Amino acid sequence: MWGRVIEVMTAVWLALSPYIFGVQHQDHTVWFDSLTALAISVLAGLSYWRPTRHAHILTLLIATGLVLYGRFAESPPPPWHQNHIAVGLFLLMIAVIPNYASEPPLAYSQRLRRQTDSF
After folding, report:
1. Global pTM?
2. Distance of alpha carbon 63 from its chain centroid, rounded?
């Protein structure tokens, strides 16, 4: 589940970034980043619950939206929109990681269990 933890940490960065880049006077940027960060955190949190374990896949839609918004909101993109592009691309990479990526494959676990049972 480490991928979901990374998504939440990225959402925290996204929520803080308007203040870091000094654009907190632009209310639409603060609201956009805050609501996007909230959506990412909710989807990552829902992935911990077994019935909604694939909710983090919807993060791909949010990440695509971030990249498109960052690229086409202003031309050339200022630093805070470049941040949207970077965060979106990063989330595209992280969102495809399965929840149990750090566990060994099922076939390996079953084989190991059979070997230990035979002793």
Report:
1. 0.82
2. 8
